[in-house]
From TrEMBL:
Glutamine amidotransferase type-2 domain: residues covered: 2-185
Protein name (record): Asparagine synthetase [glutamine-hydrolyzing]
Active site: C2
Species the sequence originates in: Stephania yunnanensis
Origin superkingdom: Eukaryota
Catalytic activity: L-aspartate + L-glutamine + ATP + H2O = L-asparagine + L-glutamate + AMP + diphosphate + H(+)
Keyword ATP-binding: yes
Pfam families associated with the record: Asn_synthase, GATase_7
EC number: 6.3.5.4
Gene Ontology BP annotations: asparagine biosynthetic process; response to stress
């Protein structure tokens, strides 16, 4: 994982402009501490901060075609680069970098090559022969990319908002699965068009062996590395399956020749947390070399400002989960590990969040999974990428493999529905696919462990501590006036108000706050899914424990619940005509 910055058509090729590009690129150095690169052509600049994962010795960027007329700066990994090189036998490669194929594919196929890439990526390519350029982002948005416009007519692209927010008048989160071409009148067009994207209801019968095979192949291809790596293991279903498959196939991989056949696994939590216990049990079962890290609530609170600066959001759920992941990534990097494999994406594909228990029918279930996958780049992908990249660690996510998503989303959604009467819990089809008697992947009680959101699993007192901390910093009057202070995406709780203030300190422009989604949520639902249960609209907390009647440690339904009025979380009781919060902001 690297950091890229591209500035094109800025009408300035002075030394001062070059120095400014270098300065802004340094804001991304945490993403790529191994080397810095800059390509300048007239008033176009491609900058790169490298985290060397593949070919550390010679894969510095930007990368070029044979005569250097085409230059590209890339953030990501191309897992099928060897196969693509075989199709480009007439081309001369300078490095062993997986990303070099992009320059040569462009030469060979023009702009229509992006769908040939199997991996996670964001890139900007400059063709100096006609001074045209393209930018593209991977199908789901695993890697971050922002696009901005300067007053001088320049167009900017950057891995993180902080590299362009000061110099652009307006900027957006570049949509995943899209390509921008200067030759096409500056239009964004979608290159990723799988069948599920249209949200039509799938009808393929469930075959556990097909699903299992697709996931195993997805994990195996992500073992491609020239540096030490491991798996993030929370002890939940998704991370445990990643670890089980990686452990099973590691000995046969190229990585094992350099780094050994014993898989390293990593977990973090408050002492005594659910995740720590479950992760240790899975690690012992799989025989991994397990690394268990602890943090305190105070250590997490002390990191909040730095976390928000790095992840560039004020979304409550994302910040709750990013903080322990941010702390864990620092520990992982201290061990010399530069790449980790993680379990993000499964809950969106299979309807694993507990609120899916209330899906009224398979059509609504499927539509919600489609909405969740399309929004991943704003939530879990953003968290996983930026929390780890803050310390120069790359996170790979096998559940978000293009082929695996197509297989999983092509299954008739009736098979994904939660049906307790016939023994089907959330993500039953995934659990069942790996529930084999011969050479079992996991112990059954782990395979059938209830969904636990990462921010809950690290220890329930973590979220409780965040709420208490926010209550100490945000007064009742501040929350009552939230709609006037923050009319866009008005904070609905004291916790949300607290995060918003920190975010605005780092990113004060209106364009920045518009990159963050809003709306009520329960247990990570979309706003639309709140319609499934009237009670949930009265308890819109993103924690899994807000799934009243479903989570084993759900909040007490008898506790007072704050209502939504004019976009703010306010109590029903009014004093002197002014709203004063009388209970915790989110209960």
């Amino acid at each position: 994982m690297c950091g890229i910055l591209a500035v094109l058509g800025c009408l300035d090729n002075s030394q001062a402009k070059r120095a400014r590009i270098v300065e802004l690129s340094r804001r991304l150095r945490h993403r790529g501490p191994d080397w810095s690169g800059l390509h300048c052509y007239q008033d176009c600049y491609l900058a790169h901060q490298r985290l060397a994962i593949i070919d550390p010795a010679s894969g510095d960027q930007p990368l070029y075609n044979e005569d250097k007329s085409v230059a590209v700066t890339v953030n990501g990994e191309i897992y099928n680069h060897q196969d693509l090189r075989a199709k480009l036998k007439s081309h001369e490669f300078r490095t062993g970098s997986d990303c070099e194929v992009i320059a040569h594919l462009y030469e060979e196929y023009g702009e229509d090559f992006v769908d040939m890439l199997d991996g996670m990526f964001s890139f900007v390519l400059l063709d100096t022969r006609d001074k045209s350029f393209i930018a593209a982002r991977d199908a789901i948005g695993i890697t971050p990319l922002y696009m901005g416009w300067g007053l001088d007519g320049s167009i900017w692209f950057a891995s993180e908002m902080k590299a362009l927010s000061d110099d652009c008048e307006r900027f957006i989160s570049f949509p995943p699965g899209y390509i921008y071409s200067s030759k096409q009148a500056g239009q964004l067009r979608r290159w990723y068009n799988p069948p599920w994207y249209s949200e039509s209801i799938a009808s393929t019968p469930y075959d556990p062996s097909v699903l299992r095979d697709a996931f195993e192949k997805s994990v195996v291809k992500r073992l491609m590395t020239d540096v030490p790596f491991g798996v993030l293991l929370s002890g939940g279903l998704d991370s445990s399956l990643v670890a089980a498959v990686a452990s099973r196939y590691l000995a046969k991989s190229e990585a094992a020749r350099s780094w050994g056949s014993q898989l390293h696994t990593f977990c973090i939590g408050l002492k005594g947390s659910p995740d720590l216990r479950a992760a240790r049990e899975v690690a012992d079962y799989l025989g991994t070399r397990h690394h268990e890290f602890h943090f305190t609530v105070q250590e997490g609170l002390d990191a909040i400002e730095e976390v928000i600066y790095h992840i560039e959001t004020y979304d409550v759920t994302t910040i709750r989960a990013s903080t322990p992941m941010f702390l864990m990534s620092r520990k992982i990097k201290s061990l010399g590990v530069k790449m980790v494999i993680s379990g993000e994406g499964s809950d969106e594909i299979f309807g694993g969040y507990l609120y899916f228990h209330k899906a009224p029918n398979k059509e609504e279930f499927h539509l919600e999974t489609c909405r969740k996958i399309k929004a991943l780049h704003l939530y879990d992908c953003l968290r996983a990428n930026k929390s780890t990249s803050a310390w120069g660690v790359e996170a790979r996510v096998p559940f978000l493999d293009k082929h695996f998503i197509n297989v999983a989303m092509d299954i008739d959604p009736d098979w994904k529905m939660v049906k307790p009467e016939i023994g089907r819990m959330e993500k039953w089809i995934l659990r069942n696919a790996f529930d084999v008697e011969e050479k079992p992947y996991l112990p059954k009680h782990i395979l059938y462990r209830q969904k636990e959101q990462f921010s809950d699993g690290v220890g329930y007192s973590w979220i409780d501590g965040l709420k208490d901390h926010a209550n100490q910093h945000v007064s009742d009057a501040m929350l009552a006036n939230a709609s006037f202070v923050y009319p866009e995406n008005t904070p609905m709780s004291k916790e949300a108000y607290y995060y918003r203030g920190i975010f605005e300190k780092f990113f004060p422009k209106s364009a920045a706050r518009s990159t963050v989604p809003g709306g009520p949520s329960v247990a990570c639902s979309t706003a639309k899914a709140l319609e499934w249960d009237e009670a949930w609209s009265k308890n819109p907390d993103p924690s899994g424990r807000a799934a009243l009647g479903i989570h084993a440690a759900a909040y007490d339904a008898a506790e007072p619940v704050l209502q939504i009025n004019n976009g703010n979380m306010l109590p029903e009781k009014l004093q002197d005509g002014i709203a004063h919060a009388t209970t915790a902001a989110v209960v």
